[in-house]
Every structure is written in structure tokens, then in C-alpha cells.
């Protein structure tokens, strides 16, 4: 348990770094051409360390292909020498070979392999306080943050050997993103906001040369790179491939014919799969360290090293070290634990509920359990959909008294002990201390177990009528049931406890478990009245999506997000404090300094504190990274968050398997 105490301090340290470092610059660019006098050069290193060796080495499996004449020599497959990215190793120079073995639930679990292998244009640094170049080599930004010149790596190639250039960026922008071919609206990152009128203006993207492009905003966009690093990480696509499938180039009939050959019934779903979830398709070239090699519907999905990967270690060894990622399909989540104990998997993550069984079997099973801190608001809580279609439920969910009643009706101490083994404090959902947006006293809000107070509030709401089972009815006498929809059974114990407490004050609760794909569909169609989905973000200015209704994403704001993303054509119009959140977000986007950004971001957080749309019953717990003792270079002390791409924040291309 001592390690967990240290983990709390670690979260505080990381949080403090975030408080003082909303980033507007990165390290010095070594790019050519040199920035003009009108441009403020920002610091953006091409490499993290110098390469010691004059030449470059490669994995034995690639050496064989070179010897057989089926693959070009390694130096011809990578960018020009000065533009090759040198990745720091966590512990030591690794060894080539072996498989990263993990479980997954099939194609709908695509992020399990997607996040660790993702290669963003810019990525966050270790403590999350800044972005740094990744696919991009560097950038320049002018003084008012309206013009960003971005430099790519000369000679860089897609996994099929075709050149990667600024044309791939422009193609993505002009023919995919702005035309919404893969089902996503234009990301908020690409809009700047007039600080006076609130007018939104779309950025203009232009090509300077084969390895340089410029992004021009009408108004200042101080956090543009941070937002791109979260919203639209790749910001590019293989134009040479997309031209062979997009209806704009091949025609609608031909596109449908191709879609059906791939196993899709319509063009729309085909383009989503190939334009957004592309990494599970072996036909599509990528920039990732590992490339899909077989059908993701197989019992084992395999990704194999990319011969054209553009990173090396400090001794000139082309990365990645591991040959393959092997994801084995599992049906029951319990197989994840059993498989780890049996040695079937060598690197995966768990929720903290599995801490005891994993920790007890560390030595016997030959793995180590490493707690990565998380920026979550709670580890056990409930979201109530503020736009749920049922008019009676919507009226209740939008009434702050109802949310307070459900909060104080539950004994958090019991939730903490049973659900989190006492490691998640019995507190309210709130920004953890040490992170941007922390509000003193928030964690205690409505946290005291008080049945009398709960009943008083429910009576005030007019819920005084009861059915034959003593459950409260709506004021009009109709049934009142809160249906919690979950994508797995992992929250069963928590929900049984909550159900007990809700019933004690006369509130009937049902739990419905569906598969992950169905849960997503229900979410987007606004058919999830309540769920246990958590809030996890390091900084609302970096990633507002779960706190600001910009699109359909988080159940608490439901179709408020659709109203925003459709420009008022669909969804539910935000009102009151939810509308005020959007107003504050526009002020964040139009801010010209970090002080302004912090001010308006804090106002958004305060509205969440005031309204408590997310009710928490236990404080945050870490994510457990479980790694075989034969796996090397696995960081022990990172922040596990979606913004940082979870395990991807550890830079998996430098993970290796010890002989």
C-alpha cells in the first residue's frame, strides 16, 4: 500500500506541472527554410539525442528481406539522416524480436491496438505540460498565434514505401476532413474565435513546399497545437490510397462496389472504417511502428513491424524493437486476469479492482504491477443524461435537487471499501488536487450520507406517490425508473450497491448491459438515460469534449452536443448553465494569453462544481500497467489518460522483450 501513497504524491507533482505550464511554445526548430523576421521561431527539436553510430541497424527479419532483394536497405527506407527521429529509451538499448501479446474483444476494441501504435503530428511530453514534434519535425508560430508553419521530415515514407509529404496533409484536409467523408465533423481545433463577437472562423491550410505547410487562423489560436494533438492527431492520410476508394475520385457506384468487396453494405460505413479506424485494415498504409497484417475479425489479430518506420534509438537501431503485436480475442473480461496469471499476455492494463489478485500473484506469474496515475474525477459514479427523451426523467435529471438527493442517498464509505478496497476516497466527483481546475472543498460537496436529506429533497420534487412496492412514482403517477446502460459487467458490484441505496429512498433502478458497439450506438442516438462513464481529463483547455457539449460524446450532456456540432440543425438547444459553458469555451478559444485561458477554463470547471452533473461516490484510483518481467523499457510513473493515448504515452516502439 505504500506505493499507492507515493502514487498520490506523483499525481500532485504532475498536476502542479500542468498548472504552471499550459504550453504555447516548444523547443527550437532546426528546420529549413529559416523563419522570417516576422515569425517568432519556436523551439522544436528534431531528435531527442544524437545518434552515436554512423550507420543504421535493423531487425534481423528485415535484414533477411534486404538480402533476398525484396526490401531496400534501411538507410533508403528512412527520412534523410538529419530528419530521422531519435527516440529516448526508458532504461536501456533494447533487443530485437518477440511479440507483444495482449487480449482484445475484437474489431470494436480497435483502440486497444490503436492508442499504443498511434503516431500524432505532435504528441504530449512526459508530464503533459507541452507538446513536442513527432510526425512533424518542427514548427514556427507568429507572435499573435494566428500563423503556424509546420515542417515535415524529408524523405519520410508510408509503410508501403510511398513518400509522405505535405500533399498527404492537404489531401486529408481538402478531400476528407472538410468534406466529412469519415463521419466526423471538422474538429474544433481548426476554428478560431473572434474575442469580441464570438464569430468562429475556419482555418486555411496551404502547402509551402513538399515538406512544409502553413495553418492560418483569422483570430489568435494559442492552443492550436495542443488541440490538434488531441482532436486530430494524425492530420494526414495516404492520398495515393484514398484516391482509389473515395467516391469523389472513383464515383459512387465504384465506391459501393469496392465497399462490398471489403465486406461493407454501404459506402458510408466503409469510409468511416477506412478513413478513421484505418489502422486495423492491412490494405491501408500507415506511419505507425506496426502495421495490420490480417483480418481483425480473426481469432488473433496481428500487427507486424513497419519496415519504413522513421525512428531509431540513440545507437542507430531502427525501431520498433518488437516484431509483432498479437491481440487474441477474448469473450469474457475475466480471461484478461486469468490469461495474465497464466503468462498468455505480457503487457496490458487493468482497472484498480483487480489490484489484489494481481499483486498477490506478481512473483508467481512473473510480472510486475505498475500504478500509473489517472486524471479522473472519480472511480465509481453516475452520469444522468440531461437531454434524455423521457420528459419526466429529463425534468428530474435537470433539477439540481434530484442530483443532490441521489448523491447523499448513498454511503460512500461502503462504496469505497467494497468497490475500491478503500483506495478510492469516499468523496464527490471533482477535479483531483494538483490538477488544473482544482476547487477547494468540492470533493466534500453532497458527500455526507444523509437519508433524511435525500427523502426531503425527493418529496420537495413532488415524488410523494408510491406504487405497491413502495417505489416513488412521477408526479403524474407514471412509473419512475432510472435505467443504467453499461457496456460491460465490470461495474456490477458498484451498481448493485447503488441500487440498494436508491431503493432505500424509493427510487427504482434497472441495469442493462449491452456490448460495447451497441453502447456506442445508444450513446449517439441519445438512448442512454444514465451510465457509470467517468470524466477523465488533464486540462479542460486541452480537451473540453467531456465537459463542454461540442459533439455527441459524453452521456451527461447527451444531444446538447449534437446541437452544437450540427450548428443547431439537430439535437437539443443548450440553455442556462450549459449554454454558459459554451460561451466560456468560446472565450477560452479566443484568448490571447495563458492567463485568459486559465481564467475562462476555471469558470467552466466552476459551473460543473455548481451543478454536479456527474455524481461520484469514490475518488480516483490508478490504472494498473501489468508487464511481464521479460518486458523492458516500460515506464513506471506516467499519467494514463486518453489525451496522452494511454499506453502510447510510454512510446511503445522502444519497449522490448529480454532474451
Q: Please, could you describe this protein's structure?
A:
By secondary structure, this protein is of the alpha+beta class. Helices cover 30% and strands 16% of the residues. Strands 1-6-7-11-10 form a five-stranded antiparallel beta sheet, with helices on one face. A four-stranded mixed beta sheet has the order 3-15-13-12, sandwiched between helices. A hairpin with a 7-residue loop joins strand 12 and strand 13. The two termini are 32 Å apart. The relative contact order is 0.15. It comes from Paenibacillus germinis. InterPro entries: SBP_5, SBP_5_CS, SBP_5_dom. This is ABC transporter substrate-binding protein.
Determine the number of helices (DSSP H or I, runs of at least 4 residues).
22
User: How many beta-strand elements?
Assistant: 25
Question: Would you tell me the overall average pLDDT?
Answer: 91
What is the structural class? alpha+beta
Given as residue ranges, the uncertain stretches (5+ residues, pLDDT < 50) are 1-49
Calculate Rg over CA atoms.
Answer: 25 Å
Outline type: globular
Helix content: 25-40%
Main sheet makeup: 5 strands, antiparallel
* Oligomer type: single chain
End-to-end separation: 32 Å
Q: How much beta, percentage-wise?
A: 15-25%
Q: Reading side by side through the largest sheet, how are the strands ordered?
A: 1-6-7-11-10
